[in-house]
Amino acid sequence: MSRLLFPVVWMMICCVSIGAWAKSNDAQAKKFFVEGTTLYNDGKFHDAAEQFRRAYEMKPSWKLWFNIGQAEAAAKQYGLALEAFEKYLAQGGDEVSKERFDEVIDEMKRLRQLVGNLEIEGAPKGAVIRINDMERGVLPLATALRVSMGVQHRVEILFNNKIIHSQTLSVGSTATATIMVGNQALADRDEELSGFGTGEGSELTSSGERVLVVSDSNSQDSASQTSEPSDSSKSAAEKNRLRSLKIFFFSSLGLAVVSGGLAIGFWSAAGNKEEELTSMETQYREDQITFDDYTTRYNSTLNSMNRFDGLSTAMLITSGVCITTSTVALILLLKNKKQRSTAFLLSPTGIAFHF
Question: 203 and 259 share a domain?
Fold first, then answer.
């Protein structure tokens, strides 16, 4: 009878853990969304966009890309706004109403006149591109990065958690700026700078003409990077820690499922052995088998049943421990941030949240 409790207990542990995970995600997503709504209404658009992105990470919903796009556009981050609206239409598909579709298309047309393109050449595959302290992609890029025109952008390229290139520049409307990475590219840039003096960044006009005005802050940044750990290195270390935590979470969860399955398998095998014992007792009472045969087979079957019982209990305990550790890992991940679908919506006059 006690063996009947094994699968029940295991399933209860799984259900409780999954329920806690889902509720935690929902609560975190709603918390970030409400904070984003408040910040948006207070005119803190950049912070609002960040909170909406966190809400998406907790519980992705294609509707949230509209919120993010509106907030980024209000913060004058036109490149990020354009990318958000593109994702909104791509992920929403036929679920986007015609009225909202037309509204977003008109907004995207406006934004395209306010952004320029940024391309990276010479950097190694796998290098991370960060613009204004926000990760924008990993090389090789499928398309050029879109950035707001006429304003300074701090571009950093990281490889193996180290900054290999840093530059401040401005891009003109509909133009394309190209950042060359490598010793020769840096030497060529320094040679060009000798005719322009020092300044802040580089300018690319709408006609595509390049005007270099780059300060010598890169050399200072390089010196500081060698003397003390940079914020980017700390950020990369944090990402590595989160990545390790994710691997631990999924490994523990996978082991919990496997050990739970084995527990049920061993429990079933022990049940079969118990039925064999009952059958042997019946055969002995009906004189179908001799006493010696009965005792030999009975002891052998009883030992097998006890082994399966012990293995089933051990696997059940292992599964419970793994579920507990994966739940702890999940809670730690959620505290730092990360992940499925509540309905969020940003109305034309403000932000609304719908369940």
Answer: no
